[in-house]
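seq as requested:
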Amino acid sequence: MSNFLLLIADIWVLTLILLFLHYRHPRYSFAPFLMFVGALTVFIQSQLGVYIEPLPGILLFLSSNGLVPVVIASVLILYVTNGAVQARLLIGGILGIGLLVLFIQFTYRQHLLLPTGGQFAQPTINDLISPTNLRVLAGSLITFAADMFVIAVFYQGIKNHFPNIPEVFTIGLALLASMWTDALLFRLIADLGTGDFIALMPGDVLGKTISALILWPLVAVYLLYFAPRLPDYMGGRNRPTLDLVTGSLGEIKQALSQTKAALQESEQKRRQEATYFDQIANHITEALWLTEPEQIHAYYVNPAYEKIWGRTAASLYADPLSFIEAIHPEDKDRIIALLPTQSQGNYDVEYRIVRPDGAVRWVRDRAFPIQNEGGTVYRIAGISEDITERKQLEKRQLDLAVERERVRLLRDFINEASHDLKSPLTAINLKIHRLMRTDDPEKRQTLSQELLQLSERIGKMVEDLLTLARLENKPDLTLMPLNLQQMILTVWEDLRSIAEEKDIQVVFDLVEEQPLLEVDPDDLERALANLIDNGLHYTPPGGTLKVVYQIENEVIIKVSDTGIGISKEDIPHIFNRFYRATNAQRLDPGGTGLGLSIVRKVVEQHRGRIELVSTLGIGTTFTIRLPRADGV
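struct tokens:
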């Protein structure tokens, strides 16, 4: 009894394994497992006659009563769930594996029969591999094939001709029919005419019946409750009885027909899309191109490329470097350095190209990556457009804006200059008139001195106005070395007399390092002279003036004084032309108000900046910051 229970456990374990594998992947996942089981069945059945005897005279061979039912049930499951094609493929695979096992057994026996063959075992060759019994082998293979076809045909026949029979009984009857076929057909082929035919037939039929009944619950539950949930579940309705034999051929033919139609439709659609693409690509004014990542070679360019570059597409295909050669020399290095960014999706550049006729055109080039299903960039697509007209328009607009700004500055300059020149000229006229009407030598001397001062003021104002006008139209500066320390000391020597006259203490904090600067010496010296002169001029006697020269990431020049300072209200306007702080006007009515404007203009032309910190009544610090031309 224990042997019988073990047989039931064997059948159920194998069946549960194949049901699990089928549910995980309905079409093919249990095929390798079943082919292995089929090969094992052939091997055991032909070599090992292992059996159990649950009742006296009833022999249940483990191969035919344990493994064979599991394989046959799997064919039914695959047929019902996935159709005739998959079931036939499984049957063919199992039979093919069986024949392969028998062939290997036969060749091994032949090796051992030859004089040079041998084995590392005590039993003889006949103990290990029995002589080939053609009737047994033929009966085993033919019966195995018949069983797998009978179960599907019998199931489908009951569904078609007796539709009122419940599905659970249809499954059980199909299992019984295939098992009985196995017992009867095998004994007819292998044992007919021998004593074993009568002796073994009843037990074999009973054993196959028991195997079918053991499998029935598992197969029925799976086909009724689990298989219908699977994708592409077919079932047994509206299928021919001989679907397993002939239906697959029809399915294959239908599948081939559908595939052919799909291919034709796909090809037609592809041609239409290609036609649409060609029409679009041939009529747009932008150049379209395709290339590979990290490659210059272009796979495709449209006709617009030839119009923009003035070169044929064939020449680009033949020589990919012709694209690089067409880039303007001043832009070539920049564009070559940016080419690797095309695969990153942020490539958007503008550059010039030189056509074969010598014409220079501006191009805007954009590129974006194309990824495959795995997310890998395998193509780069790009769009290039001719933006020469836009660039020319932008330049004209910029030039026009510059001219308008110059006109506005000139108008403001004339208005401001005429206003500030009018007052001293009026004063000169009045003093000349008074000089002509007096004979008093002392008064004439005083008026002459005042006229001289007014003349010097006008001369200083005219000189400053000319300086500002020159700075407004000054060309780009040139790179040249400059000793700033020596320049500061030179300016100090020119203004030393003012400091000595007012008893102002001057302190210098200068470094000897001389970085390379992009300067105009005359203009920079004038700016420094204006700052130091202002500091001396507006610092009371006994005060202090300090000049600091530092080298950091930039060149720093500071001019600090302990003078009258500048109010918060005046600071925002102190660099405007002709503007003078209120307290400065009271201290010196004769100033021009142009000195600090000149300083700021000079500093800005040197790509620097000027900063101001001042406290009324305490003093003022001007800080000039100039960039170093040595890149530090």
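Residues 388-437 form the longest helix (50 residues).
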